[in-house]
Each structure stands twice: as C-alpha cells, then as structure tokens.
Automatic annotation (TrEMBL), chain A:
NCBIfam families documented for this protein: V_ATP_synt_F
Pfam family, one: ATP-synt_F
Ion transport as UniProt keyword: yes
InterPro entries with a match to the protein in the record: ATPase_V1-cplx_f_g_su, ATPase_V1-cplx_fsu_euk, ATPase_V1_fsu_sf
UniProt keyword Transmembrane, yes or no: no
Keywords, in A-Z order: Hydrogen ion transport, Ion transport, Transport
Source species of the chain: Clavelina lepadiformis (Light-bulb sea squirt)
Protein name: V-type proton ATPase subunit F
From TrEMBL, chain B:
High-level lineage: Eukaryota, Metazoa, Chordata, Tunicata, Ascidiacea
Bias-annotated ranges (Basic and acidic residues): 215-231
Summary of subunit composition and partner proteins: V-ATPase is a heteromultimeric enzyme made up of two complexes: the ATP-hydrolytic V1 complex and the proton translocation V0 complex. The V1 complex consists of three catalytic AB heterodimers that form a heterohexamer, three peripheral stalks each consisting of EG heterodimers, one central rotor including subunits D and F, and the regulatory subunits C and H. The proton translocation complex V0 consists of the proton transport subunit a, a ring of proteolipid subunits c9c'', rotary subunit d, subunits e and f, and the accessory subunits ATP6AP1/Ac45 and ATP6AP2/PRR. Interacts with SNX10.
UniProt xrefs under PANTHER family: V-TYPE ATP SYNTHASE SUBUNIT D
Keywords assigned by UniProt, alphabetized: Ion transport, Transport
Gene3D superfamilies reported for this sequence: 1.10.287.3240
Protein name: V-type proton ATPase subunit D
Pfam families (alphabetical): ATP-synt_D
Function statement: Subunit of the V1 complex of vacuolar(H+)-ATPase (V-ATPase), a multisubunit enzyme composed of a peripheral complex (V1) that hydrolyzes ATP and a membrane integral complex (V0) that translocates protons. V-ATPase is responsible for acidifying and maintaining the pH of intracellular compartments and in some cell types, is targeted to the plasma membrane, where it is responsible for acidifying the extracellular environment. May play a role in cilium biogenesis through regulation of the transport and the localization of proteins to the cilium.
Region feature Disordered, mapped onto this chain: 215-251
The species this protein was found in: Clavelina lepadiformis (Light-bulb sea squirt)
Acidic residues bias spans: 242-251
HAMAP family, alphabetized: ATP_synth_D_arch (MF_00271)
From TrEMBL, chain C:
Subunit-level organization: V-ATPase is a heteromultimeric enzyme made up of two complexes: the ATP-hydrolytic V1 complex and the proton translocation V0 complex.
Annotated protein name in UniProt: V-type proton ATPase subunit
Entries under InterPro entries matching the protein: ATPase_csu/dsu_sf, ATPase_V0-cplx_csu/dsu, ATPase_V0-cplx_dsu, V-type_ATPase_csu/dsu, V-type_ATPase_csu/dsu_dom_3
Family to which the UniProt record says this protein belongs: Belongs to the V-ATPase V0D/AC39 subunit family.
Keywords recorded for this protein, A-Z: Hydrogen ion transport, Ion transport, Transport
Lineage: Eukaryota, Metazoa, Chordata, Tunicata, Ascidiacea
SUPFAM superfamilies: V-type ATP synthase subunit C
Matching Gene3D superfamilies: ATP synthase (C/AC39) subunit, domain 3 (1.10.132.50), V-type ATP synthase subunit C domain (1.20.1690.10)
Function as written in the Swiss-Prot or TrEMBL entry: Subunit of the V0 complex of vacuolar(H+)-ATPase (V-ATPase), a multisubunit enzyme composed of a peripheral complex (V1) that hydrolyzes ATP and a membrane integral complex (V0) that translocates protons. V-ATPase is responsible for acidifying and maintaining the pH of intracellular compartments and in some cell types, is targeted to the plasma membrane, where it is responsible for acidifying the extracellular environment.
Domain of life: Eukaryota
C-alpha cells in the first residue's frame, strides 16, 4: 500500500484558536508548494472558499485525516456528505463555544436507527 | 422452464456431478458469508459503541484543550499570528496500517512523532508554562482524534463491507442456489427421459430377437426332422465357418 | 538640583493636560465590583450589558449577534489604541519620545511576525491585519514588500524605528539562522535596556518610577526565561545573552541565574532579593494555586498602580497602558470562561486596585 510507505498529515479547518491549538500540538506543515495543511476560517470567510479548501484537502494524497469544526462543517455539509471514501476521513470536532452535537455528524447520522439518541448523552 | 433461469449446459451425467459439486459449494459459501456478515456486524456494533464513547471523550478533551488556550492567552498575550506563520514541518504524523477482520482490511491510523517541536521556545519570556500544558493538551487531543479517525474509517469501511457481504449472501441464497437447483432437476429429468427411451429400445430389441429366435428354432426343427429322415446323426455340429445362411443383425 | 525643579515647573505646561486626561482614563478602569458583576454573567450578551454600565459604554453596540470573544478582544484593543493615539498626537517633545518607547515593544512583536512570515514565504500583505495597531509605523508597508531576508533586514534598518536595536544585536545572517523567539527576546532586551537608560537620563520622578517598573520587567524576563528554558535546546550561554542587564538581579543574580539548572535553584537565587522572595512563596501548579507568572502580574499591577501616586512624571502613561492591557486580558479571560462554560477558574483574573 502506498499509504503505509510514509507518514501522512492531519489537516485542520477551524477558527484561529482551533488552528493555533492544533499547530502547537505539532500537526502543522507547509508542503513544497508552500500550501499549509490548515485553514483559518474567520467569521467573514466566504463559504465557497471553505468549500474549495476542503476539496483541495480531500484531493491531497498526503492527508489522511481532516479535522473540521462542527460549526464550519454545517456550512459545507453537502461536500462532507458527498465524500464516501474512507481515506481521507473527515472528523468533526467541537469548536470552543459550540458544544458537540452528534445528531449533525455526517458519519453518525449513517448509524441512525442503530442507536437511539440517548446513547449519545 | 426457460433456459435463462438455469445454466445453459448439456444434460449429461458428468455435468450433473459438476452441478451437484457446485450446489454444495454454493451452500458452503453461503454459510461462510453469512458467518462473515455476522462477524462484521458484531465488529461494526462494537466500533459504533467505541465511536460514541470516543466522541464523548473528545468533547471533554477538546474543552480542556481550548480552555488551556484561553489560559495561555491570558498570561502570554496573543501569540496566534506567530504560531500560524511559524509552520514548517509536522511533528505529529499518522501512519496507516491494515487490520484484518473476517477478510475485510480496515485501515488503522497510528500517530507517531517525527522531528522537533518548532514551537519549543514560543512563550519563552511569557506564558511558557501554560504553553507547555497547552501543547500537551492538544497533543492528547490529536492522539484521541486520530484514534477516532481510525474508528470512523473502520466504520465506513465495515459499513460498505457489510453491505457487499449481505448482497452476496442474498445473491447466493436467492439467485445462484435456485439456479443450480433448477439446472440439476433439469439434468435429472433429461437423464430420466433418456433412460426411459433406452429401456423401451432394449425391450424392442428383445422382442425382435424373440421373433428371430422362433424363426430359427422352426428352421432348425425342420432341418432336424429332415436329418432324422435321412438318418443322419442328430447332434452333428455344423461348420462354424460355413454360416452362409446366417443373416446379419442390424438395428 | 536646579534642572530638576525646572523640569517640574515646565511639566504642566507641556504635559499637564495629558496627565490630567490619563488620570481621568485611569479612573475608568474596572473596579472590584465591576468584576464581580462580570463574573456573574451567564452569557456574553450579559457581559456586554454590564460593560455598557462602565467606561466602555456602547463599544459593542454595533456588533451583530452572536457575540464572540474575538470580537470583544478586537473592540477592547481598539478602544485602548484610540486613547493612546489621542495622547500620542497631543504629546510634546520628550513625552512623545517616551510614548514611542511604549510603542516599540509592540513593534517588536509586529516585526517578529513579519520576519516569521517572510522566512516561511507567506503572503505578507495579509499579515498587516494581524499586527498590533499600537506597533504600526508609517513605513510598515515597505517592509512587507521584501521577499527575502536580506531585503527584509535592510528594510527594517532603513524604515523601522527599531533600527538601533536591530543594528546592535542582530545581523543579517541571524535572521535566517536564529530561532525567531531568540531574535524577539534579544530585541526586547536591547529595547528594555535603552528604555531604562532613557528614563534614568531623564531623571526626576520619571526615573524614580520608571526605573523601578522597568527593573522589575527586566528581572521578570530573566527569571521566566530561565525557568522556561529548562529542557529546551536553548544553551546556558545563549540564555544568558537574553537577560536584560538593568534589573536588580544585575549583575550577581544574573550570573547565578545563568548557571541555574532547575526551578529550585532559581527560587533560591530569587530569595536573596526582598522584592521577589514573596512572589515565589505559595506558588504551585495545583488547582486554586497561583502560578509564578500570576504572582508576577500581580506585582506588576501593584507597581503600576503605585506609579499614579506621584505627579509630574511620565510613568503614569506607561502604567496606564500596562494596566489597561491587564484589564483587557481580564475581561477576555472572563469572557472565555463564560463562552466555554468553564466557570471554575473564572475568579483567577488579576484584580486592579
């Protein structure tokens, strides 16, 4: 497998604080084209920019996991829903002022019916 | 019985044996796939449970992490822009391995650290202590998230695998096995038919032979009588090579 | 002592209005009861409402809901910048120089940000918005045009007010090779020493007040840098180069600090100094314990509040900015605690008496 040959990256799409935190966690990288593997979304960042960046991340071979703040994931939900391949996997994370809502999670929605909402509490 | 509902095959005894083997194989395959589907389902449910647990834990860990960010900002000022600019090589990377569950390869991510911390001296003069805690918290979050990502990919892969397996189980059960069964019964019918024809034909030959034997008997008796009249020995063996009057038997 | 008296006579002519103004501003600093109200808020909207009752007034009135912490942060900063710029624009001669010294510390951070961006070949134009507004200077745009470190170095030397500090301690090669944090702290050390010397030369009450505060700042940096350098790639020699040589620890304490290997040693060194000994007592990492940095912040606040006890000196301007900065951090801290529903530590802001 090509994937096991070399290490892959995590990518982040989130607000400034989320990105800062994960970069300090040590996941940040600029590739040789000087493209970062993170995207800071401000409150006035247009939706299509987020969409494009997410699609770019999805198409990059060196990214295995994409972390995205759930509040931002809501904006580009259709892109996430359309993504069916297991790798790269999209992971929705809570943003600091919005607690995590499992009922919105694209992955967990697939499991709807197998578990009741009480299991998430 | 139309031909597309069974396998197009010459109804011979050999093909019947082949078909019977195939039927056996299909049954075996069916039960194996069924077992596989069950195994996958058990795994699937345990993963789902783990995902829900991990997502809950993620809520906690992320909360702690982002709070420590606030703490660091309180003592260290706003360092985000520098951190966002000072990116070079990732320290945390993931490797993917494959785990085999009932023949389905599940990708498993594994975090490993590579290279140095490019923010080692950030916050040197202010907030370094909090920053270290912040880094630890986020590193912990990364580890947990990677684990969660493994579970999630496993979830998606298994979901797909279970669907495929179920489809196969159903196909074997409802299409392949009936078709083979129909083929077998077709071959059996055809063979029976052939057998009956054969039987009839044998009977017919026997009949014909009976008639011929009677005729010969009659000739022989007549010939014996003639011999007795001419006073010849009764049991004189005729010359085998001189069977000119032997008629050819043709069917 | 003649010149000393003279300077006090002319102080009011040159800066009396501004001092009055700054003392007025200082009265608007949030009090204990304001903090009590703020910590009781359940949402950021509540917080906004309570802030409207203080000197901040309607500063958040035009912000659309939902209110976020970063918006509050921006607005708080905006207000401080507006006040400072007003004072700076009306200041005369020496006070202007003094106020510029205050700005330099922000400029260092901005320059460091620009250098980091250049080294990683990022789009510099977008960085300008991230720079602290107090640290902007007229030719900042020209600095951002630089595409490589050599250009950048020259641009900083030619165009930025930080040139003297730069020339003194950073060479062009350093820009490429040195860790950015080392550059930052080297610059800051040079800046602190220059500021201290300027105040000392100014003499009078300004020197009395400012030298005390700046000496504390210098010592605090030395101590914190030492503690934070344990377990990092920073060598002892490099570490010693970052100590500002103006504080009370200079020279003996710094020599000792340069040799320190662990926290206990630092603590033992600090215990020789009556000012710092109490700061180390009762610190800890447990919940409810104050960290050493918190203690330092408290001490800084005390010094800055005391600076208002004396008249006819520039220290009040410096102290006001520092107090206001601490206040912004306090408000943001409380706002973060509210936004993240993490109330357990909401009380650990640094009160300003």
């Amino acid at each position: 497998m090509a994937s096991s040959r070399s290490g892959k990256l995590l990518a982040v799409i989130g607000d400034e604080d989320t990105c800062t935190g994960f970069l300090l966690g040590g996941i940040g990288e600029l590739n040789k084209h000087r493209h970062p593997n993170f995207m800071v979304v401000e409150k006035d960042t247009p939706t299509n920019e987020i969409e494009e960046q997410l699609k770019k991340f999805l198409n990059r071979q060196d990214i295995a996991i994409i972390l995205i703040s759930q509040s931002i994931a809501d904006v580009v939900r259709h892109v996430i829903d359309a993504h069916v391949e297991p790798i790269p996997t999209i992971l929705e994370i809570p943003s600091k002022d919005a607690p995590y809502d499992p009922s919105k999670d694209s992955i967990l929605r697939r499991a709807k019916g197998m578990f009741s909402a009480e299991d998430f509490r | 019985m139309t031909s597309h509902e069974r396998i197009d095959i010459f109804p011979s005894r050999m093909n019947l044996t082949i078909m019977k083997t195939r039927l056996k194989g299909a049954h075996k395959g069916h039960s194996l796939l069924k077992k596989k589907a069950d195994a996958l389902k058990i795994r699937f449910h345990s993963i789902l449970k783990k995902i829900i647990e991990a997502k809950q834990e993620m809520g906690e860990v992320m909360k702690e992490a982002s709070f420590s960010l606030a703490e660091t900002k309180f003592s260290g000022g706003d360092f985000s822009p520098v951190v966002l600019q000072n990116v070079s090589k990732a320290q945390m990377k993931v490797r993917s391995k494959k785990e085999n569950v009932a023949g389905v390869k599940l990708p498993v991510f594994e975090v490993y650290e590579d290279g140095t911390d490019s923010y080692e001296l950030t916050g040197l003069a202010r907030g370094g202590e909090q920053l270290n805690r912040l880094k630890k918290n986020y590193a912990k979050a990364v580890k947990l998230l990677v684990e969660l990502a493994s579970l999630q990919t496993a979830f998606v892969t298994l979901d797909e695998a279970i669907k495929i397996t179920n489809r196969r189980v159903n196909a074997i059960e409802h299409v392949i096995i009936p078709r083979i069964e129909r083929t077998i019964s077709y071959i059996v019918t055809e063979l029976d038919e052939g057998e009956r024809e054969e039987f009839f034909r044998l009977k017919k030959i026997q009949q014909k032979k009976e008639v011929m034997r009677n005729k010969q008997d009659k000739i022989r008796r007549k010939w014996q009588e003639e011999q007795e009249k001419e006073n010849l020995p009764v049991n004189q063996t005729p010359n085998l090579l001189a069977d000119d009057e032997d008629e050819d038997l043709l069917f | 002592m003649g010149s000393f008296d003279l300077s006090e006579i002319f102080y009011n002519v040159d800066s009396g209005y501004l001092e009055g103004l700054i003392r007025g501003f200082k009265n608007g600093i949030l009090r204990q009861e304001d903090y009590r109200h703020l910590t009781q808020c359940d949402t950021l909207e509540d917080l906004k409402l309570h802030l409207q009752g203080t000197d901040y007034g309607n500063f958040l009135a035009n912000e659309p809901s939902p209110l976020t912490v970063s918006v509050i942060d921006d607005k708080l900063r905006e207000k401080l910048v507006a006040e400072f710029e007003y004072i700076r624009n009306h200041s005369y001669k020496e006070l202007g120089v003094f106020l510029d010294f205050i700005k330099y510390s922000y400029m260092i951070d901005n320059i460091i940000l620009l250098i980091t961006g250049t080294l990683h070949q990022r789009q510099l134009s977008e960085l300008l918005t991230k720079c602290h507004p107090l640290g902007t200077f007229d030719q900042m745009e020209t600095v951002t045009i630089a595409t490589n470190t050599a250009d950048l170095y020259n641009a900083i030397l030619v165009d930025s007010p930080l040139a003297p500090f730069f020339k003194e301690c950073i060479s062009e090669e350093d820009l490429n090779e040195m860790n950015i944090e080392i550059i930052r702290n080297t610059l800051y050390k040079a800046y602190l020493e220059a500021f201290y010397d300027w105040c000392k030369e100014k003499g009078g009450a300004t020197a009395d007040v400012m030298c005390e505060i700046l000496a504390f700042e210098a010592d605090r940096r030395s101590i914190i840098i030492t503690i934070n350098s344990f377990g990092t790639e920073l060598t002892k020699e490099d570490r010693a180069k970052l100590y500002p040589r103006r504080g009370k620890l200079y020279p003996d304490g710094l020599i000792e600090l340069a040799r320190a290997d662990d926290y206990e040693t630092v603590k033992r060194i600090a215990e020789y100094y009556a000012d710092y000994r109490p700061l180390f007592d009762g610190t800890g990492n447990g919940p409810g314990d104050k960290t050493l940095e918190d203690k330092f912040f408290e001490h800084e606040v005390t010094l800055n509040v005391n600076s208002f006890m004396q008249q006819f000196q520039y220290g009040v301007f410096y102290s006001y900015v520092k107090l206001k900065e601490q206040e912004c951090r306090n408000v943001i801290w409380i706002a973060e605690c509210i936004a993240q529903r993490h109330r357990a530590k909401i009380e650990s802001y640094i009160p300003i008496m």
